[in-house]
UniProtKB/TrEMBL annotation, chain A:
PROSITE patterns, per the entry: ABC_TRANSPORTER_1 (PS00211), ABC_TRANSPORTER_2 (PS50893)
SMART domains with a match to the protein in the record: AAA
Keyword ATP-binding: yes
InterPro entries, A to Z: AAA+_ATPase, ABC_SmlMolc_Importer, ABC_transporter-like_ATP-bd, ABC_transporter-like_CS, Mo/tungstate-bd_C_term_dom, NA-bd_OB-fold, P-loop_NTPase, Transp-assoc_OB_typ2
Transmembrane segments: none
Similarity section: Belongs to the ABC transporter superfamily.
Protein's organism: Ancylobacter oerskovii
Listed Pfam families: ABC_tran, TOBE_2
GO MF annotation list: ATP binding
Keyword annotations: ATP-binding, Nucleotide-binding, Transport
Protein name: ABC transporter ATP-binding protein
Keyword Membrane found: no
Domain ABC transporter positions: 4-241
Domain of life: Bacteria
From TrEMBL, chain B:
Keywords: Cell inner membrane, Cell membrane, Membrane, Transmembrane, Transmembrane helix, Transport
InterPro entries: MetI-like (IPR000515), MetI-like_sf (IPR035906)
Sequence intervals crossing the membrane: 24-47, 54-72, 78-98, 110-132, 152-176, 209-237, 257-278, 308-334, 369-391, 403-425, 431-451, 487-505, 536-555
Protein source organism: Ancylobacter oerskovii
UniProt-listed Gene3D superfamilies: MetI-like (1.10.3720.10)
Subcellular location as annotated: Cell inner membrane; Cell membrane
Protein name: ABC transporter permease
Amino acid sequence: MATIQINNLSKFYGSKEGGAAVSGLNLDIRDNQFVTLLGPSGCGKTTTLRLIAGYITPDAGTIRVGDRVVSSADGVAPPDRRGMGMVFQNYAVWPHKTVFENVVFGLRLRKVPAEAARRKVLDMLAMVNLAGLEDRLPSELSGGQQQRVALARSLVVEPGILLLDEPLSNLDAKLREKMRTELKQLQRRTGITFVYVTHDQAEALALSDQIAVMHGGELQQYGSPDDVYRRPANKIVADFMGIVNFLPGTVEAGPNGLAVAVDGVAVPAPVHGTLAAGQPVDLAVRPESVRLAVGEAGTGRLAATVTDMTYLGNLVEYWLQLESGTALRAQTHPLERFSVGDRVNLSIDAADCSVFPRAGAAH
Amino acid sequence: MALLTLASPSRAAALPRWLGLEGLVIGGAIAALVVLVVLPVLSLVAASVWDKGLTGSFFATALGSTANLRALGNSLILGAWTGLISIVIGVPLAWAVSRTNVPAKGLIQLTATLSYLSPPFLTAIAFVNLFSPNAGVANVFLREVVGLDVTFNIFTMSGLVFVTVLHTFPFVYLLASSALQSVDASYEEAAQILGASKLRTALSITLPLVAPAVLSGTLLAFVNAIALFGSQAIIGLPGRVVTLPTRIYALFDYPPQYGVASALSLLFIAITVIALYLQRAFLARRSYVTLAGKGARPQLMDLGGWRWALFALCVVAFVVAILLPYGTLIAVSFSKSWGLAFWQNLTLENYRFILIDYDVTRRAILNSLMLATIAATFCVFLGAIISWIDIRTRLPGRKLLDYAALIPLGLPGIVMAVALLQFWLKMPVALYGTFAILLLAYVGRYVPLGVRAANSSLRQIDPSLEEAAQILGASWGTRMKEITLPLIRPGLFAGWLLVFVPVIQELSASILLFSSESITLAVAVYNLYETGYTEPVAALAIVNMIIIAVAIGIARHFGGSRIGLKTGG
C-alpha cells in the first residue's frame, strides 16, 4: 500500500546546534490521498519531500512506505529503488531527449517490451493533453507543456506515490489555475498518493485532502483545508493561511461561558479550556468575517473609522481603526460602499474566529 | 493495488554504495589524481631536502651558486619585461577593439588569437632565421643589399623578450577587452552627465573598473613567459642568457644533479604560485564589472582621423606577430638553402624528408598525434569525474580534490617533468623513456583544463535532471550515460581540443622525458634545429601548424567556442 509514515524525522544542516531543516516531524499519509506540505521558504517542506524521495539521509527518525522502512539515520534505500515518481519545480525535462524519449525512459528501465511501452506512452501523453507532440524537443514546448511532460514521465511508470515540488510555481497565473484543476482530476482518477509541496496557501486549499503546515522545520498543524483555515492551531498557521487581524483582547466570563472582550465589547469566540478569565489574548479575525454597517455602535458592535480603502474588483478592502487605535482589515462585497472617514460599526462572525494567548503578556 | 505492479524497476539487490560502479569510478579518479600530481610533487619536495638524510645543501646550492642565481634573475627579468610590454601592446589594442570605431577589428582579434595559439619555440626559430647575427636573412639583407653596417642580434635578452611578448600579449588583450566590453556605457554616461570630461571619465571610472583585469592578464603573461622552455633554449642559450627552465635542463647533463634540480624546481613553483595567487586575487576583484553581464552596451568613441593611426598600429602588430614569422617559416620550408637567393632554389624536398625519408620525424608526428589523442581523452574524462564529485556529491574532502586538480597550473612543464622523474625513478616500474611517462606528464599537466571545461558545463546542468532519472529507477551508470554525459558533451568536446592543441606541441616537459622510441613532434623540431637542419625544421613547423589548424577547424565546426586557452611550449 502506498502509505507513508514519518516518525520523529529530523535533518540538521551544518552542526547539530546550527539549524534543523526538519525537526521531530511526525506525519501519517494515507493511501490515495492528496497531501500538501505548506509553508514559507525555508520551512523544511522541500527537505521533507527530498527525505521522502531518498535524496537525503535523515539524522534521526524513520520513514516507512507501506510496512517497509525506507529511510532511517542508519541508511536509506536510494531513490532509484523506491519506485516513487517526482515532478520537479523546474520540470527537469531532459533537453536532449524528445517528448517520447523522456516519457518512455522509465518504461525502458523496467524492461517493458517496446510495443507495449509505446502504447503506454501515447496513452499517457493523450491523458495529459500532449497527443501528437511526442517527437518534439522540450525547447519547442511551452512551460505548461513541459510541465505535462514531466507529469507524464512520472505517471507512466504507475508509481504508488508521486512527489511534486512546487510544480506550478513557474507557470503564469492562468495556466497555474488550469493545471491545478488537471492535477486534482489526475490524482482522483489514478488513485496515486500525491505529496505536494507549495508555499501558496490558495493552491494548498484548493488541491489537498490534508494540509501539513510547516514553519521553522516543525509541523504546525496537520488537517483538512477547512481545519487549517478556520481552526488554525496557532498564530503562525492563522497568519500563514491568509490575511488575518489579531485584535488584542481579554478573556472574560459572560452569560454563555467564556468570551473575548475587545474594546469593551464581548465577542463570543470559541475560547478553549486552557485559557482563564482575565488572561490577555489575541483574537484572530479574517477580513471576510467582519461586517460593516453605517452609524454609531449599538450593543455588541464595535465602533470604527474607515481610514483607507482599496478596490480589488470582486472585493473591496477597508482599513479600519477601532476606538482603542487598533488597525483592522475588512473585506466586503463591492455593493456595500463606505468612504474614507466614515464612522461605521462592526460585527464579527465569532464562530470563525480563533483565540490565542498573547505572546509575552503576563498571566 | 494494481497500479503498483510496474512501480519498482527490476534490479539486483543493492550492493554497498562504495562497491558499485559509482564508488569504483570515484575511487579511480582520486587515485589517478594522487598518482599524477600529488605523489610526484611530494617526491620533488623530498628529493630537494633528502640525501641519505635531511639536508639543506641542495637549497644552499640552488640559492648560492652564481649560475643558479643568474638563471633565477634572468627569469624574473624576462617575466617582468614581458609582462610590462604585454600591457603596452595589449591594452591599446583591447581599447581600440572594444571602445573605438577603429576599422578591421577582426584583424586584431585574429592576430591575438593566432599569436596566442602559436607555439613560441616556432616563432623563436622563425626570428632566428631572420635575425641571427651572421646568417639571419634580415641582417644579410641590411648588410649586403642596403649596405648598412647594422646587425640585429636576436640572441639577447631583448630578443628573448621580443619573441616571448608575441605569445603573451594576448593574455592582457583578451582579459582587458572582455573587461572593457562589460563596462556598461551607463557608468561612463553617469560621470559625464555630472560634468566629467572624457579624459576624467576614462581615468576615474573606466580605468579602475578594468585595472584588475589588466593586472590579472599581466600576471598570466608573466607566468607563461617564464615557463617556456623552447624559446628560452633556442634564443637564450646561444646568447648565454640562461633562465630557470634551461638551467634545470642543464642540471640533467651527466652527472645529473637531481637534488639541486628539485630545489630549483621548487623555487620555480613558488614564483609561479605567488604570481597565480595574485592573479586570482585581482580577478576576483573584477566581479563587479561582469555584473552588467552580456547585455552591456559599451560606449564607442569616434576617433576621426586618428583611427587610421591606430589601425596602422594594428597592422604592424599583425605583420610582426603573424605574417613575419609564418611567412619566414613557409619560405624556409620551401628552400634548398635558406638565404637571399630564395626564388632560385625552391623545393619540396624538405617535406619529403620529414614526412617520408626520415624515420625519426615520421615517428615523432605519429607519436604526437597518438599521445595527444589519448592524453586529451583521459584529461576530459578525469576532469568530468573530478568536477562531478565536486559539484554533485557531498564527499568529505571533495574541495581538496578540486585543489589537487589545480596544482598543475602552478607547475611549469619542465618542473612537471622533474617531479615525474623523481617519483618514477624510485618506483619498481621502469617508466623512464616510455610513452607512459609522457602520457602521465601530459595528463597531469593539462588535467586542470579538463576539469575547467567539465566544470563550466556541469554547472549549467541542474541536478534535478539527474535526480529525475534516479527516481525513475536509473542506476548511477545509466544516469551518467543517458543524462549527464550527453548533456555536457559539447563542453567535453571543447575541453578535448583545449588539451589536444597544447599537447601536440608540448616541449617543456617532453624534452626531459622522451626517448628515441617515444620522440614527439616538438622534440624532433628542437633536435633538428640543434643539429642545424634549418630547412626541414621549418617544414616540420608548418606540419605542426597544419595539424593545429585542422584541430581548431574541427573545434569551430562543432562548438565554435573559444579554443586554445593555454598553449604548450
